[in-house]
Design goal:
Layout: H1 2-13, E1 21-24, E2 27-30, E3 45-47, H2 50-59, E4 67-73, E5 76-81, E6 91-96, E7 108-109, H3 110-120, E8 121-122, H4 132-142, E9 152-153, E10 158-163, E11 169-174, E12 178-182, E13 194-201, E14 205-210, H5 215-231, H6 233-237, E15 241-244
Parallel strand pairs: 3-6, 4-15
Antiparallel strand pairs: 1-2, 4-5, 5-6, 7-14, 8-12, 9-10, 10-11, 12-13, 13-14
Length: 245
């Protein structure tokens, strides 16, 4: 019976006649493979800040509400439509943060490290009123090539010979961990304050090693969601915008 079904299907396929179906032993067969034609997806807009998303949604330009704001990461947010008939979503607009390139876990010469701290980190005061960025800047600004041989290291903390006055050189402890705010997410929200391990070595060179296990990403996503909720509160309350992240 199976052989007869196969022969019947092959015979139907040899002809250019309209699509035909045949029932054999309770099973329905056809001479054509049907493919569903899916609706085309929308080409999305690309912006580089959160305010661009807010302005787009408040403008009602495309009238695609309701929508979902998906906070994918600290550097990417997408606005998606609801499911269409093919169970697909269209992306209306995507925001990707423009950020400086900061090489963590790599050593830099002290001049480059100084510039990095001043240009890519936000001045910040921690809960115990410490300003670790300024403390690190003072330290690396006073270490000289001939003093690098005076490092002391017990595996956890370090000390290095640095100028502490007009002409005084002393062993200065390297602060650890240091709490800093590098630019790692959209500039509209507060940059997360995170602990870093500061290490120095001969060269002299310095490096920052991330020490929070990625917790800053959760903080950044929460900050993005809070910003979007604040700016779009009226629309959210009307149940035509959902924020997930």
């Amino acid at each position: 019976m199976i052989k007869e079904a196969i022969d019947k299907i092959l015979s139907l396929a040899k002809h250019t006649a309209p699509i035909q179906t045949v029932e054999i032993d309770g099973q329905t067969y056809t001479n054509a493979e049907l493919t569903k034609i899916r609706k085309p997806l929308i080409d999305h807009i690309e912006v580089h800040n959160l305010s661009g998303i807010v302005e787009y949604l408040l403008s009602d330009f495309d009238l695609q509400l309701p929508v979902i704001l998906h906070v994918i990461s600290p550097t990417e947010v997408r606005v998606l439509t609801s499911l269409n008939g093919d169970f697909n979503r269209s992306t209306l607009i995507t925001a990707t943060a423009l950020l400086p390139r900061i090489r963590f876990n790599d050593y830099h010469d002290l001049e480059s490290f100084n510039i990095l701290l001043q240009s890519c980190f936000v001045p910040a005061v921690s809960e115990d009123l410490r300003n670790d960025r300024e403390a690190v800047l003072r330290l690396v600004g006073n270490v000289k090539d001939e003093q690098v041989m005076s490092f002391g290291d017990d595996g956890i903390s370090q000390s290095v010979a640095a100028k502490t006055g007009v002409a005084t050189v002393e062993n200065v402890p390297v602060p650890n961990p240091v709490h800093l705010k590098p630019f790692r997410t959209f500039v509209e929200i507060e940059q997360p304050l995170s602990p870093f391990v500061l290490r120095l070595k001969k060269g002299p060179e310095a490096a920052l090693f991330e020490a929070d296990g990625g917790a800053w990403k959760v903080m950044a996503i929460s900050g993005i969601k809070a910003y979007l909720y604040d700016k779009l509160k009226e629309r959210i309350l009307k149940n035509n915008i959902v924020i997930v992240g």
